[in-house]
Amino acid sequence: MRYITIALAKGRLAADTLDLLEQIGISCDEIRDKSSRKLIFENKELKLKFFLAKASDIPTYVEYGAADIGFVGKDTILEEGRKMYEVLDLGLGKCKMCVAGPESAEKLLQHGELIRVATKYPNIAKDYFYNKKHQTVEIIKLNGSIELAPILGLSEVIVDIVETGKTLKENGLVVLEDICDISARMVVNEVSMKMEHERISAIIKDLKEYLNNKKNGS
Ligand SMILES: Nc1ncnc2c1ncn2[C@@H]1O[C@H](COP(=O)(O)OP(=O)(O)OP(=O)(O)O)[C@@H](O)[C@H]1O
Ligand SMILES: O=P(O)(O)OC[C@H]1O[C@H](OP(=O)(O)OP(=O)(O)O)[C@H](O)[C@@H]1O
């Protein structure tokens, strides 16, 4: 039996994803050891390998088959646009992708003006403004603290994740338009899904059952 490789997104989703896998009997305690510099971990009994990587790299590992399975946010899946199967919504890391900015920007959006949009998600922003709204905009790619852009006059609005709304509120910004709901998903390499159908389907089934039972309070 060959090893199945599982890629997990570093950061906010990692601990919750590992907890979820543990609930269905898939454990990898070693990966939680933050002091370790080791990159790949094994569960020899289950013939599974695990690694943590930057969220935006997970779809790349999965499309190329370097990982058979990945756990990553829908935002990253949409942004990276890789070929792979999205098989399950884990209901973790729930948040929204939104257009946000100062209240005064609302009329610029309504009038379809040529505005500047700062974002960590240029592909999602392009798809939203060009394909869904048919509005021409200038996209400015940033890598973090996106809320700074409209405050400092770099852009009129931003496209970013909103969870509690605290960051927007504390910086005098508001949600202007909702783009889509986001949560963590399980993704699978297309060839692995065929070659390792039995084992991968069993993981999907166990996760679905656990999530359904949790939802129904049992
Ligand atoms: N408040 C939130 N802010 C950002 N991401 C969130 C939030 N709530 C849930 N998420 C989800 O968690 C995922 C991981 O977020 P995290 O901040 O750890 O990494 P990242 O910002 O994508 O990576 P990096 O910090 O390396 O750029 C996001 O892709 C998203 O799906
Ligand atoms: O609605 P809230 O609960 O305030 O969460 C949303 C904020 O969290 C994320 O930033 P993150 O902490 O990942 O930092 P970053 O801006 O450097 O990406 C996101 O980009 C927002 O700024």
TrEMBL record:
Top enzyme class: transferase
Chain ranges of the ATP phosphoribosyltransferase catalytic domain: 54-208
Gene Ontology MF term list: ATP binding; ATP phosphoribosyltransferase activity
UniProt EC number: 2.4.2.17
Keywords: Amino-acid biosynthesis, ATP-binding, Cytoplasm, Glycosyltransferase, Histidine biosynthesis, Nucleotide-binding, Transferase
GO biological process: L-histidine biosynthetic process
Any one of the GO CC terms: cytoplasm
Catalysed reactions listed for this entry: 1-(5-phospho-beta-D-ribosyl)-ATP + diphosphate = 5-phospho-alpha-D-ribose 1-diphosphate + ATP
Pfam assignment, any one: HisG
Pathway where it operates: Amino-acid biosynthesis; L-histidine biosynthesis; L-histidine from 5-phospho-alpha-D-ribose 1-diphosphate: step 1/9
Entries under Gene3D superfamilies matching the protein: Periplasmic binding protein-like II (3.40.190.10)
Residue stretches in coiled coil: none
UniProt subcellular location: Cytoplasm
Superkingdom, taxonomy of origin: Bacteria
Domain note: Lacks the C-terminal regulatory region which is replaced by HisZ.
Quaternary structure annotation from Swiss-Prot or TrEMBL: Heteromultimer composed of HisG and HisZ subunits.
Family recorded in the similarity comment: Belongs to the ATP phosphoribosyltransferase family. Short subfamily.
Function summary: Catalyzes the condensation of ATP and 5-phosphoribose 1-diphosphate to form N'-(5'-phosphoribosyl)-ATP (PR-ATP). Has a crucial role in the pathway because the rate of histidine biosynthesis seems to be controlled primarily by regulation of HisG enzymatic activity.
Name of the protein in its database record: ATP phosphoribosyltransferase
Species name: Herbinix hemicellulosilytica
